[in-house]
Design goal:
With 201 residues, the protein is of the alpha/beta class. It contains 5 helices and 9 strands. The protein binds S-adenosylmethionine (SAM).
Length: 201
């Protein structure tokens, strides 16, 4: 992925960059704030290594992320364009790191993170999943389901498989539902230092 797409056709010629941008926006933006405790890695696997790219966003350092899809897509595009000559990860803008990736290796490393789960329609209910760690890492796919090779790689990671509900949602909607579920369990109530924890974690 070279970033050679037009911002005027995000849902078509850009290969559903609209949904990627929406997912990034959903992962980080709150009403007038950002989720500083969130990180996200997006794998661009349309081309194999060495041209496969990953963008890693770190909420603690993130700047220039606005809630609208077009400016988010522009941020990602600029990073991808800048990454083309790079052979290692660089910080393209504050909190946004871009570089080459080997997708299976990246997935294996990600799966080692505490509380890692695979978000998939065929999983068990998120609502009743008990997270043992104090953080959660989640893998989900873009608008196109993983192909059989990718499914085999994901199955091989041995992660808990979780469904966010009975309907097939867009990736960005899954992120919203997951954040909401974790907020309900862990986020402090406004005006109180007490976290509102559910009966289960
Ligand atoms: C738009 S969906 C993929 C296409 C979808 N399977 C369909 O039939 O239209 C994108 C991704 O979101 C996640 N997803 C969608 N709905 C889900 C659900 N109810 N529970 C868990 N994950 C879901 C999965 O990771 C899925 O691969």
């Amino acid at each position: 992925m070279s970033g050679a797409f037009t911002l005027n056709d995000l849902a078509g010629g850009a290969g559903r960059m609209d949904e990627v941008a929406r997912s990034v926006s959903t992962a980080f933006t709150l009403s007038n704030d950002l989720r500083r405790d969130t990180e996200m890695t997006v794998l661009f696997v349309a081309e194999p290594p060495p041209r496969a790219r990953q963008i890693r966003l770190v909420g603690e350092r993130l700047r220039h992320l606005n809630p609208d899809e077009r400016s988010t897509a522009a941020l990602l595009k600029n990073a991808l364009v800048r990454s083309i000559p790079a052979t290692r990860e660089t910080e393209a803008s504050p909190g946004l790191f871009v570089g080459p990736t080997d997708p299976p290796t990246a997935l294996q490393e990600f799966a080692q993170l505490p509380g890692c789960v695979w978000i998939t329609e065929s999983g068990g209910p998120l609502r009743s999943h008990r997270f043992e760690a104090d953080s959660v890492a989640a893998i989900l796919s873009d608008p196109y389901d993983p192909d059989p090779t990718e499914v085999a790689e994901l199955e091989g990671l041995g992660l808990p498989k979780l469904s966010v509900g009975p309907r097939s949602l867009r990736s960005s909607q899954c992120i919203d539902v997951l954040h909401n579920e974790l907020d309900l369990r862990w986020a402090p109530m406004p005006g109180s230092d007490d976290p509102l924890r559910g009966d289960h974690r």
